[in-house]
Amino acid sequence: MTVHLVGAGCAGPRWITLEALDLLRRADAVVYDSLIHPDLLQLAPRTCEFHAAGKRKGRASLKQPEINALLTELGKAKETVVRLKGGDPFVFGRGGEEALALEKEGIPWTYTPGITAAIGGLGRAGIPPTHRGLADSLTLATGHSEQNGAPRENLWKAVAEGGGTLAVYMGASSWGNLARFLEANGMAPETPCAAVTRGGWGCASTVRFPLSCSPSALRGPAVVTAGGTAGLALSPDRGPLAELKVAVVRPAPESWDTARFLESLGADGFSLPLLAEEELPFPGEEDLLAGADWIVLTSPRGAALLSGRTDLRTLRGKIASIGPGTTAALARTGLRADGEARPSTSEALASLLAGRVQPGERVVFFRNEAGSPLPEDAVRARGAAVVNIPAYRMVPGRPPGWDSYESLWEETGLDAVVFGSAALVRAWNTSGLSMPEGAVPVGWGTPCAAAAEGLLGLKALVMAEPTLESLAALLADLKKRKPTEEKE
Protein backbone atom coordinates (compact mmCIF):
# COMPACT_ATOMS: atom_id res chain seq x y z
CA MET A 1 0.00 0.00 0.00
CA THR A 2 1.68 3.15 -1.26
CA VAL A 3 0.73 6.78 -1.79
CA HIS A 4 2.40 8.31 -4.84
CA LEU A 5 2.89 12.09 -4.89
CA VAL A 6 2.69 12.77 -8.61
CA GLY A 7 3.26 15.96 -10.58
CA ALA A 8 0.80 16.44 -13.45
CA GLY A 9 2.83 19.24 -15.00
CA CYS A 10 1.57 22.75 -15.68
CA ALA A 11 -0.03 22.12 -19.09
CA GLY A 12 -2.09 19.49 -20.92
CA PRO A 13 -1.82 15.70 -20.70
CA ARG A 14 0.99 15.57 -23.28
CA TRP A 15 3.37 16.93 -20.62
CA ILE A 16 2.87 14.13 -18.12
CA THR A 17 5.80 11.78 -17.48
CA LEU A 18 5.82 8.09 -18.36
CA GLU A 19 6.10 7.19 -14.68
CA ALA A 20 3.06 9.29 -13.83
CA LEU A 21 1.16 7.69 -16.72
CA ASP A 22 1.97 4.21 -15.42
CA LEU A 23 0.85 5.09 -11.89
CA LEU A 24 -2.44 6.58 -13.07
CA ARG A 25 -3.22 3.54 -15.20
CA ARG A 26 -3.08 1.24 -12.15
CA ALA A 27 -4.44 3.62 -9.51
CA ASP A 28 -7.08 2.46 -7.04
CA ALA A 29 -7.73 6.03 -5.88
CA VAL A 30 -6.75 9.47 -7.17
CA VAL A 31 -6.78 12.63 -5.07
CA TYR A 32 -6.49 15.58 -7.44
CA ASP A 33 -6.29 19.36 -7.27
CA SER A 34 -7.97 22.01 -9.41
CA LEU A 35 -4.90 22.93 -11.48
CA ILE A 36 -4.60 19.61 -13.29
CA HIS A 37 -5.99 19.14 -16.77
CA PRO A 38 -9.19 17.16 -16.06
CA ASP A 39 -8.62 14.79 -19.01
CA LEU A 40 -5.79 13.18 -17.02
CA LEU A 41 -8.33 11.42 -14.81
CA GLN A 42 -9.46 9.40 -17.84
CA LEU A 43 -6.12 7.56 -17.70
CA ALA A 44 -7.16 5.82 -14.48
CA PRO A 45 -9.15 2.54 -14.46
CA ARG A 46 -12.95 2.72 -14.49
CA THR A 47 -12.98 1.15 -11.02
CA CYS A 48 -10.83 3.93 -9.57
CA GLU A 49 -12.07 6.23 -6.79
CA PHE A 50 -11.72 9.97 -7.43
CA HIS A 51 -11.45 12.63 -4.74
CA ALA A 52 -11.41 16.34 -5.60
CA ALA A 53 -9.13 18.27 -3.25
CA GLY A 54 -8.60 21.59 -4.99
CA LYS A 55 -9.73 25.16 -4.70
CA ARG A 56 -11.06 27.17 -7.62
CA LYS A 57 -12.35 30.74 -7.55
CA GLY A 58 -13.23 30.69 -3.86
CA ARG A 59 -15.32 27.51 -3.93
CA ALA A 60 -15.33 25.37 -0.79
CA SER A 61 -12.46 22.90 -0.69
CA LEU A 62 -10.61 20.58 1.65
CA LYS A 63 -8.11 22.18 4.00
CA GLN A 64 -4.58 20.79 4.02
CA PRO A 65 -5.05 18.82 7.29
CA GLU A 66 -8.16 17.25 5.75
CA ILE A 67 -6.20 16.30 2.61
CA ASN A 68 -3.47 14.78 4.77
CA ALA A 69 -6.08 12.76 6.66
CA LEU A 70 -7.69 11.59 3.40
CA LEU A 71 -4.34 10.44 2.00
CA THR A 72 -3.60 8.61 5.23
CA GLU A 73 -6.97 6.89 5.19
CA LEU A 74 -6.66 5.85 1.55
CA GLY A 75 -3.04 4.82 2.02
CA LYS A 76 -4.12 2.30 4.66
CA ALA A 77 -6.98 0.88 2.57
CA LYS A 78 -5.83 0.99 -1.07
CA GLU A 79 -2.94 -0.63 -2.89
CA THR A 80 -2.08 2.30 -5.20
CA VAL A 81 -3.07 5.86 -4.32
CA VAL A 82 -2.10 8.75 -6.60
CA ARG A 83 -1.99 12.29 -5.23
CA LEU A 84 -2.12 14.23 -8.49
CA LYS A 85 -0.87 17.81 -8.28
CA GLY A 86 -0.66 20.52 -10.93
CA GLY A 87 2.97 21.32 -11.70
CA ASP A 88 5.33 19.62 -9.24
CA PRO A 89 4.26 18.43 -5.76
CA PHE A 90 7.42 19.80 -4.14
CA VAL A 91 7.38 23.26 -5.75
CA PHE A 92 4.84 25.18 -3.64
CA GLY A 93 2.55 22.17 -3.88
CA ARG A 94 2.69 21.26 -0.18
CA GLY A 95 3.87 17.79 -1.13
CA GLY A 96 6.40 17.81 1.69
CA GLU A 97 3.62 18.32 4.24
CA GLU A 98 1.73 15.37 2.78
CA ALA A 99 4.85 13.20 2.83
CA LEU A 100 5.46 14.03 6.50
CA ALA A 101 1.85 13.16 7.37
CA LEU A 102 2.22 9.81 5.61
CA GLU A 103 5.55 9.02 7.30
CA LYS A 104 4.03 9.81 10.67
CA GLU A 105 1.48 7.05 10.04
CA GLY A 106 4.06 4.64 8.63
CA ILE A 107 2.59 4.72 5.11
CA PRO A 108 5.07 4.27 2.23
CA TRP A 109 5.13 7.07 -0.35
CA THR A 110 6.96 7.93 -3.57
CA TYR A 111 7.60 11.11 -5.51
CA THR A 112 7.17 11.62 -9.27
CA PRO A 113 8.24 15.07 -10.50
CA GLY A 114 6.15 17.23 -12.81
CA ILE A 115 7.05 20.12 -15.12
CA THR A 116 6.69 23.20 -12.97
CA ALA A 117 5.36 26.52 -14.29
CA ALA A 118 8.57 28.49 -13.69
CA ILE A 119 10.38 26.12 -16.07
CA GLY A 120 7.82 24.82 -18.58
CA GLY A 121 5.32 27.65 -18.46
CA LEU A 122 7.86 30.45 -18.80
CA GLY A 123 9.85 28.54 -21.42
CA ARG A 124 6.76 27.90 -23.56
CA ALA A 125 6.04 31.66 -23.35
CA GLY A 126 9.51 32.48 -24.71
CA ILE A 127 11.05 33.39 -21.35
CA PRO A 128 13.96 31.04 -20.56
CA PRO A 129 14.48 31.03 -16.78
CA THR A 130 18.25 31.48 -17.24
CA HIS A 131 20.27 33.00 -20.08
CA ARG A 132 23.99 33.71 -20.34
CA GLY A 133 24.65 37.40 -19.85
CA LEU A 134 21.17 38.09 -18.46
CA ALA A 135 20.54 35.66 -15.62
CA ASP A 136 22.89 33.14 -14.05
CA SER A 137 20.43 32.29 -11.28
CA LEU A 138 16.74 31.58 -10.81
CA THR A 139 14.84 32.35 -7.61
CA LEU A 140 11.48 30.71 -6.94
CA ALA A 141 9.23 32.40 -4.42
CA THR A 142 5.60 32.35 -3.41
CA GLY A 143 3.43 35.43 -3.38
CA HIS A 144 1.71 34.07 -0.27
CA SER A 145 4.85 34.43 1.82
CA GLU A 146 3.45 36.80 4.43
CA GLN A 147 3.95 37.58 8.08
CA ASN A 148 1.09 39.23 9.99
CA GLY A 149 -0.61 40.07 6.67
CA ALA A 150 2.45 41.82 5.17
CA PRO A 151 5.25 40.54 2.92
CA ARG A 152 8.11 38.96 4.86
CA GLU A 153 10.65 41.74 4.89
CA ASN A 154 13.80 39.62 5.14
CA LEU A 155 12.74 37.35 2.29
CA TRP A 156 11.76 40.05 -0.17
CA LYS A 157 14.72 42.25 0.69
CA ALA A 158 17.02 39.34 -0.16
CA VAL A 159 15.05 38.65 -3.34
CA ALA A 160 15.28 42.30 -4.42
CA GLU A 161 19.04 42.27 -3.97
CA GLY A 162 19.63 38.78 -5.34
CA GLY A 163 19.75 39.48 -9.08
CA GLY A 164 19.01 36.86 -11.71
CA THR A 165 15.45 35.90 -12.64
CA LEU A 166 12.74 36.01 -10.00
CA ALA A 167 9.69 33.77 -10.53
CA VAL A 168 6.78 34.30 -8.14
CA TYR A 169 4.08 31.65 -7.82
CA MET A 170 0.58 32.54 -6.61
CA GLY A 171 1.38 36.22 -6.84
CA ALA A 172 -1.26 37.41 -9.29
CA SER A 173 -3.57 39.05 -6.75
CA SER A 174 -0.82 40.45 -4.54
CA TRP A 175 1.71 41.53 -7.15
CA GLY A 176 0.96 45.24 -6.82
CA ASN A 177 2.02 45.21 -3.16
CA LEU A 178 4.98 42.94 -3.83
CA ALA A 179 6.21 45.16 -6.64
CA ARG A 180 6.20 48.23 -4.40
CA PHE A 181 8.03 46.28 -1.70
CA LEU A 182 10.68 45.09 -4.17
CA GLU A 183 11.20 48.60 -5.49
CA ALA A 184 11.45 50.00 -1.97
CA ASN A 185 14.14 47.41 -1.23
CA GLY A 186 16.38 48.33 -4.12
CA MET A 187 15.01 46.71 -7.29
CA ALA A 188 15.20 49.29 -10.09
CA PRO A 189 11.87 50.84 -11.20
CA GLU A 190 12.62 49.99 -14.83
CA THR A 191 13.18 46.28 -14.07
CA PRO A 192 11.33 44.28 -16.75
CA CYS A 193 8.50 42.06 -15.51
CA ALA A 194 6.15 39.56 -17.15
CA ALA A 195 3.12 37.67 -15.92
CA VAL A 196 2.40 34.35 -17.68
CA THR A 197 -1.11 33.06 -17.05
CA ARG A 198 -1.76 29.34 -17.58
CA GLY A 199 1.78 28.84 -18.81
CA GLY A 200 2.11 25.85 -21.11
CA TRP A 201 -1.57 25.83 -22.12
CA GLY A 202 -2.70 26.78 -25.60
CA CYS A 203 -4.64 29.69 -24.09
CA ALA A 204 -1.61 30.99 -22.19
CA SER A 205 -1.23 34.77 -22.13
CA THR A 206 1.68 37.06 -21.27
CA VAL A 207 1.51 40.59 -19.89
CA ARG A 208 4.73 42.65 -19.84
CA PHE A 209 5.40 45.78 -17.79
CA PRO A 210 8.15 47.60 -15.88
CA LEU A 211 8.28 47.10 -12.12
CA SER A 212 7.21 50.69 -11.41
CA CYS A 213 4.06 50.28 -13.54
CA SER A 214 2.99 46.91 -12.18
CA PRO A 215 -0.76 46.23 -12.32
CA SER A 216 -2.43 46.10 -8.93
CA ALA A 217 -3.73 42.61 -9.76
CA LEU A 218 -3.16 40.10 -12.54
CA ARG A 219 -5.18 37.23 -13.93
CA GLY A 220 -4.36 33.89 -12.35
CA PRO A 221 -3.22 31.22 -12.17
CA ALA A 222 0.02 32.94 -13.13
CA VAL A 223 3.75 33.00 -12.55
CA VAL A 224 5.07 36.56 -12.33
CA THR A 225 8.70 37.02 -13.27
CA ALA A 226 10.93 40.04 -12.68
CA GLY A 227 14.49 40.89 -13.67
CA GLY A 228 16.93 38.59 -15.39
CA THR A 229 15.23 37.11 -18.44
CA ALA A 230 11.81 38.68 -17.83
CA GLY A 231 12.47 41.20 -20.61
CA LEU A 232 13.66 38.56 -23.09
CA ALA A 233 10.75 38.10 -25.47
CA LEU A 234 11.49 35.06 -27.61
CA SER A 235 8.76 33.83 -29.95
CA PRO A 236 8.39 30.03 -30.03
CA ASP A 237 5.96 28.65 -32.60
CA ARG A 238 2.70 28.08 -30.76
CA GLY A 239 0.99 26.10 -33.54
CA PRO A 240 -1.79 26.99 -35.98
CA LEU A 241 -4.58 26.42 -33.42
CA ALA A 242 -3.02 28.32 -30.49
CA GLU A 243 -5.55 30.20 -28.33
CA LEU A 244 -8.44 27.88 -29.27
CA LYS A 245 -10.23 25.88 -26.58
CA VAL A 246 -12.07 22.88 -28.00
CA ALA A 247 -14.22 20.22 -26.34
CA VAL A 248 -14.39 16.92 -28.20
CA VAL A 249 -17.57 14.91 -27.66
CA ARG A 250 -16.77 11.49 -29.10
CA PRO A 251 -16.64 8.01 -27.58
CA ALA A 252 -13.41 6.84 -25.97
CA PRO A 253 -10.69 6.47 -27.13
CA GLU A 254 -11.51 8.72 -30.11
CA SER A 255 -12.34 11.67 -27.84
CA TRP A 256 -8.95 11.41 -26.10
CA ASP A 257 -7.00 10.94 -29.32
CA THR A 258 -8.74 13.87 -31.01
CA ALA A 259 -8.15 16.19 -28.06
CA ARG A 260 -4.45 15.31 -27.98
CA PHE A 261 -4.21 15.80 -31.76
CA LEU A 262 -5.61 19.32 -31.33
CA GLU A 263 -3.08 19.98 -28.56
CA SER A 264 -0.26 19.02 -30.91
CA LEU A 265 -1.45 21.92 -33.08
CA GLY A 266 -1.45 24.40 -30.19
CA ALA A 267 -5.07 24.25 -29.00
CA ASP A 268 -6.39 23.20 -25.60
CA GLY A 269 -8.37 20.00 -26.12
CA PHE A 270 -10.89 18.50 -23.72
CA SER A 271 -12.05 14.89 -24.05
CA LEU A 272 -15.71 14.28 -23.25
CA PRO A 273 -16.67 10.65 -23.95
CA LEU A 274 -20.34 11.04 -23.09
CA LEU A 275 -21.26 7.64 -24.52
CA ALA A 276 -19.59 4.43 -23.40
CA GLU A 277 -19.52 1.08 -25.15
CA GLU A 278 -21.62 -1.81 -23.86
CA GLU A 279 -21.17 -5.14 -25.64
CA LEU A 280 -24.24 -7.12 -26.67
CA PRO A 281 -23.99 -10.91 -26.98
CA PHE A 282 -25.60 -12.36 -30.11
CA PRO A 283 -26.42 -16.10 -30.26
CA GLY A 284 -24.77 -17.92 -33.16
CA GLU A 285 -22.73 -14.95 -34.33
CA GLU A 286 -19.58 -17.00 -34.97
CA ASP A 287 -21.37 -19.25 -37.49
CA LEU A 288 -23.01 -16.24 -39.14
CA LEU A 289 -19.68 -14.45 -39.52
CA ALA A 290 -17.91 -17.57 -40.78
CA GLY A 291 -20.60 -18.12 -43.44
CA ALA A 292 -20.79 -14.51 -44.65
CA ASP A 293 -19.88 -13.46 -48.19
CA TRP A 294 -19.43 -9.92 -46.88
CA ILE A 295 -18.81 -8.59 -43.37
CA VAL A 296 -19.61 -4.92 -43.00
CA LEU A 297 -17.95 -2.87 -40.24
CA THR A 298 -19.30 0.59 -39.55
CA SER A 299 -16.91 1.83 -36.86
CA PRO A 300 -13.39 1.31 -35.46
CA ARG A 301 -15.09 0.01 -32.33
CA GLY A 302 -16.79 -2.81 -34.22
CA ALA A 303 -13.53 -3.69 -35.96
CA ALA A 304 -11.74 -3.93 -32.62
CA LEU A 305 -14.50 -6.10 -31.11
CA LEU A 306 -14.50 -8.55 -34.01
CA SER A 307 -11.26 -10.27 -33.03
CA GLY A 308 -12.54 -10.99 -29.52
CA ARG A 309 -15.91 -12.32 -30.67
CA THR A 310 -14.90 -14.85 -33.33
CA ASP A 311 -11.95 -16.84 -34.63
CA LEU A 312 -10.64 -14.64 -37.43
CA ARG A 313 -9.19 -17.67 -39.21
CA THR A 314 -12.71 -18.89 -40.00
CA LEU A 315 -13.71 -15.79 -41.94
CA ARG A 316 -13.90 -16.40 -45.68
CA GLY A 317 -15.91 -13.43 -46.85
CA LYS A 318 -14.83 -9.99 -48.02
CA ILE A 319 -14.79 -7.10 -45.55
CA ALA A 320 -16.26 -3.65 -46.17
CA SER A 321 -15.16 -0.73 -44.00
CA ILE A 322 -16.92 2.59 -43.48
CA GLY A 323 -13.68 4.56 -43.68
CA PRO A 324 -9.94 4.90 -42.94
CA GLY A 325 -10.36 4.82 -39.14
CA THR A 326 -12.22 1.53 -39.28
CA THR A 327 -9.77 0.14 -41.82
CA ALA A 328 -6.86 1.02 -39.52
CA ALA A 329 -8.56 -0.63 -36.54
CA LEU A 330 -9.16 -3.70 -38.67
CA ALA A 331 -5.50 -3.79 -39.73
CA ARG A 332 -4.46 -3.88 -36.08
CA THR A 333 -6.25 -7.23 -35.82
CA GLY A 334 -4.35 -8.57 -38.84
CA LEU A 335 -7.20 -8.24 -41.35
CA ARG A 336 -7.51 -5.97 -44.36
CA ALA A 337 -10.55 -4.30 -45.87
CA ASP A 338 -11.60 -5.37 -49.36
CA GLY A 339 -13.58 -2.17 -49.78
CA GLU A 340 -13.49 1.19 -48.00
CA ALA A 341 -16.11 3.93 -48.12
CA ARG A 342 -14.93 7.46 -48.85
CA PRO A 343 -15.95 9.70 -47.22
CA SER A 344 -16.70 7.92 -43.95
CA THR A 345 -20.49 8.19 -44.11
CA SER A 346 -23.41 5.78 -44.23
CA GLU A 347 -24.30 7.18 -47.65
CA ALA A 348 -20.85 6.40 -49.03
CA LEU A 349 -20.92 2.92 -47.50
CA ALA A 350 -24.32 2.26 -49.07
CA SER A 351 -22.95 3.32 -52.45
CA LEU A 352 -19.90 1.05 -52.05
CA LEU A 353 -22.02 -1.98 -51.20
CA ALA A 354 -24.47 -1.30 -54.04
CA GLY A 355 -21.59 -1.51 -56.48
CA ARG A 356 -19.84 -4.56 -55.01
CA VAL A 357 -22.41 -6.93 -53.52
CA GLN A 358 -23.89 -9.56 -55.85
CA PRO A 359 -27.47 -10.93 -55.80
CA GLY A 360 -27.87 -13.94 -53.54
CA GLU A 361 -24.83 -13.17 -51.37
CA ARG A 362 -25.11 -13.06 -47.60
CA VAL A 363 -24.03 -9.76 -46.03
CA VAL A 364 -23.46 -9.61 -42.26
CA PHE A 365 -23.41 -6.22 -40.55
CA PHE A 366 -21.36 -6.25 -37.33
CA ARG A 367 -22.02 -2.88 -35.75
CA ASN A 368 -23.67 -0.49 -33.31
CA GLU A 369 -27.22 -1.39 -32.29
CA ALA A 370 -28.32 2.06 -33.51
CA GLY A 371 -26.65 1.93 -36.92
CA SER A 372 -28.02 3.68 -40.00
CA PRO A 373 -30.41 1.58 -42.17
CA LEU A 374 -29.05 3.05 -45.45
CA PRO A 375 -26.30 0.42 -46.08
CA GLU A 376 -28.73 -2.42 -45.30
CA ASP A 377 -31.31 -1.01 -47.69
CA ALA A 378 -28.70 -0.78 -50.44
CA VAL A 379 -27.79 -4.47 -49.97
CA ARG A 380 -31.41 -5.59 -50.06
CA ALA A 381 -31.95 -3.58 -53.23
CA ARG A 382 -29.19 -5.68 -54.82
CA GLY A 383 -31.08 -8.88 -54.00
CA ALA A 384 -28.67 -10.01 -51.30
CA ALA A 385 -29.53 -11.40 -47.88
CA VAL A 386 -28.91 -9.17 -44.86
CA VAL A 387 -27.99 -10.31 -41.35
CA ASN A 388 -27.66 -7.62 -38.69
CA ILE A 389 -25.54 -8.38 -35.60
CA PRO A 390 -25.93 -5.58 -33.04
CA ALA A 391 -22.52 -6.16 -31.44
CA TYR A 392 -22.66 -3.26 -29.00
CA ARG A 393 -24.62 -0.21 -27.94
CA MET A 394 -23.50 3.17 -26.68
CA VAL A 395 -24.84 4.14 -23.27
CA PRO A 396 -24.62 7.53 -21.53
CA GLY A 397 -21.59 8.00 -19.31
CA ARG A 398 -19.65 10.81 -17.70
CA PRO A 399 -15.87 11.14 -17.50
CA PRO A 400 -14.27 11.43 -14.04
CA GLY A 401 -13.79 14.96 -12.81
CA TRP A 402 -17.03 15.92 -14.53
CA ASP A 403 -17.57 19.11 -12.56
CA SER A 404 -14.07 20.37 -13.37
CA TYR A 405 -14.83 21.12 -17.01
CA GLU A 406 -17.51 23.77 -16.65
CA SER A 407 -15.67 25.54 -13.82
CA LEU A 408 -12.52 25.55 -15.94
CA TRP A 409 -14.36 26.93 -18.97
CA GLU A 410 -15.75 29.70 -16.80
CA GLU A 411 -12.16 30.91 -16.50
CA THR A 412 -10.73 30.12 -19.92
CA GLY A 413 -13.77 30.23 -22.19
CA LEU A 414 -14.54 27.63 -24.86
CA ASP A 415 -14.46 28.24 -28.62
CA ALA A 416 -15.93 25.06 -30.09
CA VAL A 417 -17.62 21.79 -29.16
CA VAL A 418 -17.00 19.00 -31.67
CA PHE A 419 -19.75 16.37 -31.81
CA GLY A 420 -18.97 12.97 -33.33
CA SER A 421 -22.60 11.96 -33.95
CA ALA A 422 -26.20 13.02 -33.48
CA ALA A 423 -26.41 10.58 -30.55
CA LEU A 424 -23.60 12.48 -28.85
CA VAL A 425 -25.43 15.77 -29.35
CA ARG A 426 -28.37 14.21 -27.55
CA ALA A 427 -26.06 12.93 -24.81
CA TRP A 428 -24.68 16.45 -24.32
CA ASN A 429 -28.18 17.89 -24.26
CA THR A 430 -29.31 15.52 -21.51
CA SER A 431 -26.07 15.61 -19.49
CA GLY A 432 -26.73 18.94 -17.81
CA LEU A 433 -23.88 20.66 -19.63
CA SER A 434 -24.64 24.00 -21.22
CA MET A 435 -22.93 25.52 -24.23
CA PRO A 436 -20.56 28.21 -22.93
CA GLU A 437 -21.18 31.65 -24.34
CA GLY A 438 -19.39 32.06 -27.67
CA ALA A 439 -18.81 28.33 -28.21
CA VAL A 440 -19.65 27.04 -31.71
CA PRO A 441 -21.00 23.50 -32.32
CA VAL A 442 -19.07 21.50 -34.93
CA GLY A 443 -20.64 18.45 -36.56
CA TRP A 444 -18.64 15.44 -37.74
CA GLY A 445 -21.16 15.27 -40.57
CA THR A 446 -24.34 16.94 -41.83
CA PRO A 447 -26.80 14.85 -39.71
CA CYS A 448 -24.73 15.60 -36.62
CA ALA A 449 -24.70 19.34 -37.37
CA ALA A 450 -28.46 19.30 -37.97
CA ALA A 451 -28.99 17.62 -34.59
CA ALA A 452 -26.81 20.26 -32.92
CA GLU A 453 -28.80 23.08 -34.48
CA GLY A 454 -32.12 21.48 -33.57
CA LEU A 455 -31.28 20.59 -29.98
CA LEU A 456 -28.95 23.41 -29.03
CA GLY A 457 -30.48 26.21 -31.08
CA LEU A 458 -27.11 27.33 -32.43
CA LYS A 459 -25.76 27.49 -35.97
CA ALA A 460 -23.36 24.58 -36.40
CA LEU A 461 -20.30 24.22 -38.60
CA VAL A 462 -19.82 21.04 -40.64
CA MET A 463 -16.49 19.40 -41.39
CA ALA A 464 -15.76 18.95 -45.09
CA GLU A 465 -14.70 15.35 -44.41
CA PRO A 466 -14.87 13.20 -41.27
CA THR A 467 -11.10 13.32 -40.68
CA LEU A 468 -8.81 14.94 -38.14
CA GLU A 469 -7.17 16.95 -40.91
CA SER A 470 -10.54 18.35 -41.94
CA LEU A 471 -11.31 19.24 -38.32
CA ALA A 472 -7.99 21.07 -38.02
CA ALA A 473 -8.71 23.05 -41.19
CA LEU A 474 -12.17 24.03 -39.95
CA LEU A 475 -10.82 25.16 -36.58
CA ALA A 476 -8.02 27.14 -38.22
CA ASP A 477 -10.66 29.00 -40.22
CA LEU A 478 -12.70 29.54 -37.05
CA LYS A 479 -9.65 31.05 -35.37
CA LYS A 480 -9.17 33.51 -38.25
CA ARG A 481 -12.77 34.67 -37.87
CA LYS A 482 -12.60 35.22 -34.10
CA PRO A 483 -12.94 38.90 -33.12
CA THR A 484 -9.51 40.37 -32.61
CA GLU A 485 -10.45 41.74 -29.21
CA GLU A 486 -10.85 38.17 -27.92
CA LYS A 487 -7.22 37.37 -28.65
CA GLU A 488 -4.49 37.98 -26.11
From TrEMBL:
What name has this protein been given in UniProt? Answer: uroporphyrinogen-III C-methyltransferase
According to the UniProt entry, its GO molecular function terms are: uroporphyrin-III C-methyltransferase activity; uroporphyrinogen-III synthase activity
Keyword Methyltransferase on this protein?
yes
Q: Which residues form the Tetrapyrrole biosynthesis uroporphyrinogen III synthase domain?
A: 259-472
SUPFAM superfamilies reported for this sequence: HemD-like (SSF69618), Tetrapyrrole methylase (SSF53790)
Give the record's keywords alphabetically. Answer: Methyltransferase, Porphyrin biosynthesis, S-adenosyl-L-methionine, Transferase
Membership in a protein family: Belongs to the precorrin methyltransferase family.
Q: What is its EC number?
A: 2.1.1.107
Alphabetized InterPro entries for the sequence: 4pyrrol_Mease, 4pyrrol_Methylase_sf, 4pyrrol_syn_uPrphyn_synt_sf, 4pyrrol_synth_uPrphyn_synth, 4pyrrole_Mease_sub1, 4pyrrole_Mease_sub2, CobA/CysG_C, Siro_Cobalamin_biosynth
Among the GO biological process terms of this entry, one is:
methylation
Task: Give the PANTHER family listed for this entry.
Answer: S-ADENOSYL-L-METHIONINE-DEPENDENT UROPORPHYRINOGEN III METHYLTRANSFERASE, CHLOROPLASTIC, SIROHEME SYNTHASE-RELATED
Q: Which Gene3D superfamilies match?
A: 3.40.50.10090, Cobalt-precorrin-4 Transmethylase, Domain 1, Methyltransferase, Cobalt-precorrin-4 Transmethylase, Domain 2
Q: Which parts of the sequence belong to the Tetrapyrrole methylase domain?
A: 2-207
